[in-house]
Amino acid sequence: MESSDASAHSTQAREIKKPPYQQERLVEFLQLKAEIESLLEHLQSMKQQNSELSEELAVTERL
């Protein structure tokens, strides 16, 4: 059981001690991920607005 604990500990230590370029890549990835999520939210909002405007236009055309 101690060997598995030691193995888990060494794995954690390796993850913490990543080379700087890997950490930079991770930061870059997380920034891009956040930007993509923000753009997707904006797109969803625009789709909702478009849908609402289409409904209003349809009602207006019926009058």
TrEMBL record:
Coiled coil ranges: 29-63
Swiss-Prot/TrEMBL keywords: Coiled coil
Region (Disordered): 1-20
Highest taxon of source: Bacteria
Record field: compositional bias (Polar residues): 1-11
Protein name: Uncharacterized protein
Organism of this sequence: Scytonema millei VB511283
